[in-house]
Amino acid sequence: MKFNTRTIHGGQEDTDPAYGAVMSPIYQTTTYRQSTPGGHKGFEYSRSGNPTRAALERSLASIENGNFGLAFGSGLAAIDAALKLFRSGDEIISTNDLYGGTYRLFTGIFEQLGIKFHFASMHEPGGIEQYINKNTRMIWVETPTNPMMNIIDIEAMVRIAKKHKVLLAVDNTFATPYLQRPLELGADIVMHSATKYLGGHSDVVLGALVVRDQDLAEKLHFIQKASGAICGPQDSFLVLRGIKTLHLRMQRHCENGEAVAKFLRDHPKVGKVYWPGFEDHPNHDIAKKQMSGFGGMISFTTVEDTLQSAVKLVEKLKVFTLAESLGGVESLAGHPASMTHASIPKEERAKTGIVDSLIRLSVGIEDEEDLINDLKQGLD
Length: 380
Ligand SMILES: *Cc1c(COP(=O)(O)O)cnc(C)c1O
Hints:
The protein starts with a helix and ends with a helix. The relative contact order is 0.13. It has 380 residues and is an alpha/beta fold. The model has no long low-confidence stretch (mean pLDDT 96). It contains 14 helices and twelve strands. It is globular, with a radius of gyration of 21 Å. The chain has two domains: 3-243, 3-Layer(aba) Sandwich (Aspartate Aminotransferase, domain 2); 246-379, Aspartate Aminotransferase, domain 1 (Alpha-Beta Complex), CATH 3.90.1150.10. The structure holds pyridoxal-5'-phosphate. Pyridoxal-5'-phosphate binds next to helix 3 and helix 4.
């Protein structure tokens, strides 16, 4: 099956043996009748397994071209589960240009438990080898990065991970499997905040991990069941429904993203525009190699380069809503320094380019002209 078919049918062959419902029913149940002790139909208790969640997990595995999907109550719950693979004394190398909540989880929870993190620039992939030692267990990559839209070379990271026998995990939230499939490039774990593009309608918080290796899947299933950060059947259903239109939505996100990026670049009140589709983007060639499009996420600064000018602009927007999050059908504008990335210290933020005048757009699937006119009136 091709990708655009897998979004709809992947892993959904027999979702309702009882009545043949085309959509997976929402199995709003905690427990399952047993004919004799231990005699059940594959489900015993909904923390360890639920048919609606299982349908979503098969869909996730299919669209990422993995073998096993695991769904969690949020993206961070998924990362939390992945980090529980490790022990005190283990070391993880992470990109330094990271989603703020991931940084907070790494430093605020797992560092306290004795896991050591190295936050490194991954522009030059070889640069991370200086941090690798006998305790290194995993490399954590987010690409495109949030909010600076840097691109990390996944294949180069795969080579380093394999050479040193450590796991490579990729947060694929921004690209989605429509644009980029890290498992096909050799990554071990793909992580999603399905809250964003996979759900796609800003109405559900959910997270996911997808892997190919059975042993790794068994360890993660144990963590999922033992720690219990699962998602409910209703939320599983909503993401399953969202995934069915992922390819159509992403196509429009890419078209609108390109139009908005080009408009911003030509506007005299705009400073820098960060979008990997520009030929002069420092990692454009890598983006072209590992992604099939450039997506709808764009960051830019004002030419005035002040906090005030950015705040004034986002307050003026009418079609773009000032809000956290991304990846929904509606366009959103955010101010990373005071919103999504406020949990990263100002000095750390500045090092990666998150200046006070930076604005991040999640370009939705509305009419292109309305989006551009909205930005135009705001900037003017
Ligand atoms: C939102 C986000 C997360 C966290 O996911 P939640 O669903 O909000 O817990 C992780 N990584 C990236 C890139 C995100 O955008």
